[in-house]
Amino acid sequence: MNNRVVITGIGVISPIGIGKDTFWESLINGKSGVDYITKFDTEDYPTKIAAEVKDFDPVNYIDKKDAKRMDRYSQFAVAASKIAIQDSKINLDSIDKERFGVILGSGIGGIETFETQNEKLIKKGPKRISPFFIPMMIGNMAAGQVAIAFDAKGPNETIVTACASSTNALGDAFKKLERGDADILISGGTEASITPIALAGFSSMKALSTNNDNPKEASRPFDKNRDGFVMGEGAAILILETLEHAQNRGADIYAEVVGYGSTCDANHITTPLEDGSGARRAMEIAINDANIDKDEIDYINAHGTSTHYNDKFETLAIKNLFGDKAYDIKISSTKSMTGHLLGAAGGIEAIASSLAIKNNIIPPTMNLNEKDEECDLNYVPNKAINCDVKYALSNSLGFGGHNATILLKKYEK
Question: Domain Ketosynthase family 3 (KS3), which positions (predicted)?
Fold first, then answer.
């Protein structure tokens, strides 16, 4: 018999707050984390806005010497993991460290370190490159640093599936716990890619919003006037445990993980399938994995990037799976407030879904002011609503055609 898997801790480093309470209050009050970029001069860029993490000082969570040897994305991961462990009330001295692991997602890894060290190479030559360049930059190091920080000697993996990375990480963690490969896993995602070259790259693709005059309203999923996504950064960490392990230590439980689906469009490097069939299958697999009827779904935290094709085709995927029932499901895109955290997006949205279940409140899709005829579902526009949520889906879609869905349930003994 498979183990049941539950969420017992939440750690958030986000553009709308650090810690779950600040994050949740911001979400349900429609607070935007989007503003003008402060980290570098954007004069020559068509996009001058992003959702930066404010008021983050790594030395509040990490030894100063260790923090200097980490890229920002690893700092985020270690800090969010510390917050999540504290939230879970796990006594790290009393657990089997060999059954305690880390599975994280990151789409880009240490791009800030890569960029600054490359500039140093060009200006000052190869002898000036830091000996910590490689271990700061590589994409698996956040998971490695988290394991080192908390002595997690069990499974340790990093999933890289672009913007689906942390949903795939959560799904893989769920399956490992379900089959008994570990007792506790730190899972979720981290990203810190608001850098000159990343902004330039996404701008060159015409993927980003250029609504520079109205930063707070630039991320507008499903709105007729949406013009691209807004880059975000941060980390979202969930503590996943087998139910037996959580019960044995008297843990508080946010929600239960009951289903996971993962597919590929195998179609185009950036554009989803026009019929939304890849995303539809990921949702369908997750629902079948949970052995429930699709009509039991109450809420979908959509990928909802605020790009033309994503929002149109994700809407179509939901319609094709749920039929007329699609119009009864509450759907929202919290990217309207957090921006798009890329590889960490699935983690932050799984946390939003968990808190929606726990609090029976569905966060809104902000800036949804003009209806798009092709996006005609109930996206909970501009104001949170009270609603009993028993089952919630969280969708993530990534460049390369990756689709991932995690299915959460209200915990019942």
Answer: 2-410
163 a catalytic residue = yes
User: What CATH number labels 5-248?
Assistant: 3.40.47.10
DSSP string, 46-58: S--EEBPPPS--G
Residue 386, beta-bridge partner list: 361
DSSP 78: H
Distance CA 376, CA 248 (A): 46
Q: 184-211 burial, b if ≥16 CB within 10 A, otherwise e?
A: bbbbbbbbbbbbbebbeebbeeebbbeb
Which of 163, 264, 375, 387 is catalytic? The answer is 163
Q: With H, G, I as helix, E, B as strand and everything else as coil, classify residue 267.
A: coil
Q: Where are the beta strands (DSSP E) in 213-369?
A: 234-242, 255-264, 299-301, 330-332, 361-362
Q: In this structure, are residues 390 and 410 in contact, taking their beta carbons and an 8 Å threshold?
A: yes
Give the pLDDT confidence of 229-242 residue by residue, as tens digits.
Answer: 999 999 999 999 99
How much is the pTM?
0.98
- CATH 3.40.50.720, applies to 260-409: no
Q: Domains of the chain: which residue ranges?
A: 5-248, 260-409
pLDDT in tens, 309-339: 999 999 999 999 999 999 999 999 999 999 9
Whether the domain at 5-248 and the domain at 260-409 fall into the same CATH topology = yes
Whole-angstrom distance, CA of residue 114 vs CA of residue 94: 39
